[in-house]
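Render this sequence as a predicted structure.
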Amino acid sequence: MEEDDIEYKQNFLRTQIIDEGYDPEIFSKFLSDEKGDNGLDLNNWKFEDLKNAVIKFKSMKSNEQNNIENIQNENENSNFENLENENNKKLENNNQSEKIKNEENSLQNEIKEDKLNIIKNSKNEIDTFEIMPSLSEIKTVKEYINCNKQEKNEFTEIENFKIKISK
């Protein structure tokens, strides 16, 4: 019978295992595990048993490949989820930083407005001011001229004098 011929079995294994990309060493170990010490001798295999062993081996390898792909997909999904969570955290941190910057800018603007309002309001409420010569020209403290509630148009221009306005 041709199916029990060793060449026929070898050709069958070549097309089913080697040509389809399976590792022949792994298949040899599989045959040894299936039939014990005599598993590598093709004379100990009936063609139908060898055919069933090939089907079982391919099925086992297919399941292993599916398991590997599932694990890889799970890892990729996990990595994607971790990356997505990390990106969401960064985005949230950026949003919080932007919010804090906006609040700081708003507070700074309010402070500037308050200062401007104080300056505007205080221009009309000046109680006293001093006309002071430059520091190099001061001889005594008596040289300061104290004035009370002067109108702006009453100021005269004095060379080398500095004006200090205080409440």
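Summary. The radius of gyration is 48 Å. The chain has three helices and three strands.
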